[in-house]
Specification:
- By secondary structure, this protein is an alpha/beta fold.
- The protein has helices at residues 25-32, 37-46, 63-81, 88-97, 134-145, 159-172, 199-217, 220-228, 260-267, 294-302, 322-338; strands at 17-21, 49-53, 56-60, 122-123, 128-129, 148-152, 178-183, 232-236, 248-252, 275-280, 308-312.
- The chain is built from 11 helices and 11 strands.
- A 6-stranded parallel β-sheet has the order 8-7-9-10-6-11, with helices on both faces. A 3-stranded antiparallel β-sheet has the order 1-3-2. A two-stranded antiparallel ribbon has the order 4-5.
- Helix 1 crosses helix 3.
- The longest helix has 19 residues, at 63-81.
């Protein structure tokens, strides 16, 4: 018989309990969620039972589980006190990653104030973006502090999303004049045939993930105007040849599908006052058999070059659905067995 993922765990009535007090009843309502769905999510993940009594929550279960639950509830309540929203993904992040200390990297410019303590937030026009894992925090620090930053790892770890968020933040603050987003127009294992329309209509399907990220950070009308003014550009990698990209934040997504020649061409576009973020996943190379991935070659050649940042993500950094992390780990394990 199949049971719901949110079925409360069976905890003996005489189990030890921890009582937690939350003085603001309005915030406590938000903490519990509609029909106590937030509490149910925590119960399911941490094998505890949570009961509400006035402005108190009682947590029943093993001592370690109760202590972790108290930490999670405290961190989520503090988040609400700061005026921030609480989504299922925020609850999952609090459970999986904890309320660990923030990165305290060396300051290099005013935009790095966030790394001097306190929470790390990337400000955009529509939302505040928070790196959730230690690797994501290190990656964001690299994006702000280095002119060239590589983010390498599996899907769902926020490599492109955070890079675009930092690009928008630096654009809003006037650190760069333009945003340029690019990807190789390579089909992911299937032949799509000849697409109809003009050049933009032909390449837009390949660029859609970049459009999606921008729409998360900028209002639609403002984004349309900035794209019309060419202050934000989305273009295939092949269109970068011959350009010098000055005073721009440039993101190359899906870099594992760039050829070695394309990667060298792209990296040498870096102009005065610009920054580049290169993101990719070495396990998802769609190039023809026998063709070297430009990302793999660049990683080998540039690994020890001064002032180039490399951040490596793992399945533990996946911030989509928790199932995605388990899928990646299963594939990694199978690949190791095959080797």
């Amino acid at each position: 018989m199949t049971t719901s993922a949110l079925t409360p765990p069976q905890i003996p009535q005489d189990a030890p309990e921890t009582a937690l007090e939350f003085p603001d009843n309005r915030l406590l309502i938000d903490l519990c969620g509609e029909f106590d769905r937030n509490l149910a999510q925590i119960e399911d993940k941490l094998s505890v039972q949570i009961m509400r009594r006035g402005n108190h929550l009682s947590v029943l279960g093993d001592e370690d589980d109760r202590n972790q639950t108290a930490d999670v509830l405290g961190a989520l309540y503090e988040r609400l006190e700061q005026g921030r929203t609480l989504e299922p993904a925020d609850i999952d992040a609090a459970i999986r990653f904890g309320n660990s200390a923030q990165d305290t990297g060396t300051r290099r410019g005013d935009q790095l104030e966030m790394f001097q303590g306190g929470r790390i937030e990337i400000k955009t026009r529509k939302k505040l973006v928070e790196p959730r894992t230690e690797t994501q925090k290190a990656y964001v620090h690299g994006l702000f502090s280095h002119e060239l930053c590589f983010g390498i790892g599996p899907a769902g770890t926020g490599k492109t999303y955070l890079a675009v968020a930092v690009a928008v933040s630096m654009f809003i603050d006037g650190h760069v004049d333009r945003i340029i987003l690019s990807r190789p127009a390579v089909e992911a294992g299937e032949r799509l045939g000849f697409l109809p329309g003009d050049m933009k209509e032909k390449v837009d399907p390949f660029m859609q993930p970049l459009y999606d990220a921008l729409h998360d950070f900028l209002p639609g009308k403002q984004l349309a105007r900035l794209m019309e003014e060419k202050r934000i550009e989305i273009a295939p990698l092949a269109f970068m040849r011959g350009r010098t990209l000055s005073n721009a934040f440039v993101v190359l997504d899906e870099a594992q599908n760039a050829s070695a020649m394309q990667m060298k061409m792209f990296l040498t576009r870096l102009g005065e006052g610009s920054r580049m973020a290169i993101t990719g996943d070495r396990s998802q190379i769609d190039l023809p058999r026998g063709q070297m991935s430009g990302l793999v070659e660049a990683e080998r050649i540039l690994r020890d070059v001064k002032d180039i940042s490399f951040t490596y993500f793992t399945a533990r950094d996946v911030v989509r659905h928790p199932m995605v992390a388990r899928i990646i780990e299963a594939y990694d394990a199978d690949s190791g067995e095959d080797a």
